[in-house]
Amino acid sequence: MQGKNIKKHIKKKISEWAESVPDEEIKKLILNNTMVTGGAIVSLLQDEEPHDYDVYFRDKESLKKVATYYVNKYIEKAGENGNYNPIVQECFWSDEEHWANTTGTKGRWVVIDDNIKDKVKSEDIRLRIFIRSDGATGEDYSPHSDIDEDYKRACAILNQKIKDKKKETKEKNEPYTPVFMTNNAISLTDKIQLVMRFYGEPEEIHKNYDFVHCTCCYRSWDNELDMPARALEAIINKELYYVGSKYPLCSIIRTRKFINRGWVINAGQYVKMALQLNDMDLTNLHVFEEQLIGVDSAYFNHLIWSVKQVQKNDPNFNPDSTYLINLVNDVFDKEM
Question: Is-contact 303 328, C-beta < 8 A?
Answer without folding.
Answer: yes
